[in-house]
Amino acid sequence: MKQTEPQGWVFTGNEEEFKLLNPDRSSHLYFPLVNEGGMKSSVSPTQHGMATSGHDTFLTPPLSVEDLHNSRSSRNFWVHIEGQGAWSAAGNSAGQIAGFYQPDKDEVALEAGFLWHRVTRSSTRFAVKAEITNFVPCGNDKVELMKVVLTNKGNDSITVTPTAAVPLYARSADDLRDHRHVTSLLNRIYTTAYGVEVQPALSFDERGHRVNPTSYGVFGAAGDGSAPVGFFPVQEEFIGEGGSLDWPEAVVLNADPAPADRGAFREGYEALGGIRFATVSLLPEDSTVYIVVMAIHNQRMDVPALMAKYGSAAAFDRLFAENQIFWKAKVSTVEFHTGHPEADRWMKWVTLQPVLRRLYGNSFLPYHDYGRGGRGWRDLWQDCLALLIMEPAEVRSLLLNNYAGVRIDGSNATIIGAKPGEFIADRNNIPRVWMDHGAWPFLTTALYLNQSGDLDFLLEQQSYFRDSYRSRCRERDMDWNPEAGNELRTRTGAVYRGTILEHILLQNLVPFFNVGEHNNIRLEGADWNDGLDMAAERGESVTFTAFYASNLLEISGMLRTLRERTGQETVQLAEEITLLLDSTSEHLDYGSVKDKHERLDRFYAAAPNQVSGVRLALTIESVADDLKRKAEWIFGHLRRSEWVQGKDGSGWFNGYYNNDGEAVEGNFPEGVRMTLTGQVFPLMGPAAAPEQVPQIIAAVEKHLLDKRIGYRLNTNFGGIQQNLGRAFGFAFGHKENGAMFSHMTVMYGNALYKRGFVEEGHQVLNSIYCLSSDYSVSRMYPGIPEYINEQGRGMYPYLTGSASWLLLTMVTEVFGVKGILGDLLLAPKLVKEQFDADGTASIRTLFAERTLEVCYRSSGSRMYGEYRIGKVTLNGAELALQHSPEGVLIPRSQLEALAAGELHRLEVELV
Length: 911
Known about the structure:
The chain is α+β, with helices and mostly antiparallel strands. It has 22 helices and 55 strands. An 11-stranded antiparallel beta sheet has the order 1-2-8-9-10-11-23-17-14-13-20, with helices on one face. Keywords: Glycosyltransferase, Transferase.
C-alpha cells in the first residue's frame, strides 16, 4: 500500500509550538528534553530515546540514531483491552510495527514546544486513543516525567489494564557491549509502593571497581496520585520465554504482577520499570490519566517525597506550566520580527540551540553518539558568542575561567571539565594540537569587549594550564608530577599568573612562527575541520593563517584603544614572550621559514613548561606595531602566494597544503578543487583584497553552490586523500566531505555581510532556512542541523555551533545591533523582503543589561544601500544622532540610565 507523503510541521498560533502529522513515517526524528540540573533525555515519536545524567549514568540504554527504529527497547505504555487484545500507546507493539503499511495503521499527531513533546495516537483497530506528554522539569532534579491519557473513542464501554514498561539500564555507556551481562549481575533491584529502583552494587571498571552510590528508578501513579497494583522488576520475566519487549508475555496474557504491597528485592538481572496499574472500565469518551516518573539520584531515593512532588496529574500540569515559562523566558531574550513570520519562529528554535549545546555538550543525543560529555575548547568559545547575546551576565567569569586552559606554548587543554577552570589535556590521552584553537578565544573576547566596553578585562590575571606535554605536544616533560596540579609554575615553584592580554598574545604569536615549508601556519593535528587530521608533518592551513593575521591586526588596534582610553603606556609581559615580539628589539625576516623556526625553538627553550616569573614592561605602541607588522606581512604573502586564478575570471584562495607539501586547491586536470573554508576566513578579515571579493563569490557560486543541498564544504577531490585527512574517506556529499556544513555556510554569510555584500549574504542564510525547513526533504524538526547530506536530509540536529553563528549574524550584521567598545551601534543590513507589509522590521535583544526593542521603519526604499538612518527615538524621545562610518552610535551611558528590568523601545526611521 502506497503511503501518502507526510505533510511538514506547521507552527501553531503565533508561538514556537509546532504540529506534525504522521511523524512516525519519518525515520531518525528525536526531540531533546533537558534541564539545568543535569538530566539529559531525548524522545522520538515512538518513545524511543534515552535518559541519562552523564556517560556513566544512563537510566535507559544508550543508543544511536539507527536504534530509534531498530531497537525494541523504549519507554512503553501498554494497554490490555479485555476481550480484544494488547495495544501500545507508544506504537511499539509487534503488531503495530508490522502493520505500519496496513490500512488500520494508527493515526498519529505530534505537538512540541519549549521543551515538551506530545504524541497523540488513535488506534483504528481498537476504540482507544492515547496522548503521551514528556518533559524534564526545570530545576536540579534528574527527573523525566511522562503523562499518559487514555480515552475510550468507541460507542461501548471498555475495560483496560495499563502497564508502563521502561527498561532500566542503570550503568555506564561503556558497559553496552563490554561486559553487558556481567554488569547486570551487579544490579540490586528494589520495589516500593510506586515502582522499581535499581542501585548497582559497583561501578564496573577493570581499572578499579568502586562502590556505586547512584540509583535509577521508574515510578508511576494514577492521575489522582494513587499507587499502582504491582510490578514487573525483571525484564526477562516480563517478556517471558520467547517473548520480546514489543510483544511481552506479561501484557499479552495480562499476567499478574508482583504485588505492590509486599515489596521485593531481586538481584543479578536486567531490570525493568514495569508498573501495572489497576484495571479500569471506561465509558465512551471517558479518560483515565497516569503519571510515569523516571529518575536518577546520587543515592537511594526517598520515593514518597519524589512522588509527592511529581506523582500526580495536578503536579505534572503545574510543573509543565512552569517548564514552559522557564524555557520561553530563556529564549525570549532575542526575538525577530520580519516580513517572514515563519522564519522568525524558526529562529526561536535556532536561539534555543546554543543553550542545548551548553547543557548536552556534544553527546547524549542519538546522532551525537560519540564522546563522553563535556565540550571541546573550540566549542566553548564559539558557544559563548551566543551566550554574550542571550546570557551576558554569566560570560565574563566564564571567559576568565577558561583562559586558564591556555598553555605557555600557545596551545591549550582540549576538554573542558564540569567545574569552572577544570581542564583535561585530552579525553583519550592522545597528544594532539588543533592549530585553530588559539584563534577563537580572542574572537569571542573581542565581541565581549565591544559589547561591554570592559577593557580592564585584558589586564585581569589568570594562571596557565600545564601537563606533561610541551612544545605544542611534540615533547614530553618527564619530570612533570601530576600531583603538583595543572598550573604553570615559575622556576621557584610559585604558580605563575599572567594577564588575559598575555594569554591572547601567546595564542596568536606562537602560530605565526610555527609555519610549514610554504610559510603558512602548520596544520598540526587538524584545524576547524577535524577531518583534516592526517597531515601533521607537512600540512599547512592557509585559511587559518588568514584568521590569525586578522586577530593580530585587531589586537594591535585594541591595544592602541587601551592606551587612548586609560592613558596606560606600557604592558607587563613575561620576559620569555619578548622573543616572539621580535620587532620590539630586532626585525626578523618573515619570509624566512628557517628564521621563524629558530626563533620559535628559542622560545620553547626559554619556557619549557615553566617560566622565570620575571615580567618586562613593553610600550603598548611597540607591541601594537609588532602585531600590525606581522599581520600585514601575512596579508601580502597570502595575496601573492595562495591566490588561485580561475579560467573564467573567478578566483579563490588555496586553503591547505597536504602531508606531501602539495597545494590542495586549484585547477587540476581532473577539475577544480576548492573548499568553502579556504574562502571564509580571508573574507571575514582583510586578507582578501577588495578586488578579490567578487571573484571569490563568483567561484563559490560556480563550484560550491548546489541548489539541491546548498553551499558545499568542498568540491569532489576524488579518492580518500590519506595525505590530508579522514574526511575524504566519507562519501562525497556527507559530513565534512562536500556536504552543506551549516557552520561554515553561516560563517560565509557572515563574512559577506561584513564585506558589504548584503544581498549575497542574505541569499546564503536564506538557503539554510529553506533547506532546513523543507520537511519533505530535510525530515527534521525546526532548527539548524550540523549539515545537510547528499539527499537533503538534516543531520545531527540541535548540537551545532552554527546556531551561535547564525544568531550572532542575525543580531549584529542583519539587524546591525552591535557594540563598539561598550557603545551601541545601529547599522542595519536588512533587505527588501525582511520588512513586513508596513515597512517594519524589529529585534528584541539585550544590550548594556537592558532589554531593547529596536524597530526599523522604512518610509522610502527598502533596498539595502538605498536607505539610511534619518531619526532615532528612545522611548519616544528623539536622540541626537552620532554618526560613525557604519551607522549611528548611542553612548552606553544613555542606555545605562534606563530602568533595568523593563522593555525599552528604539524607533529607527530609515529614509
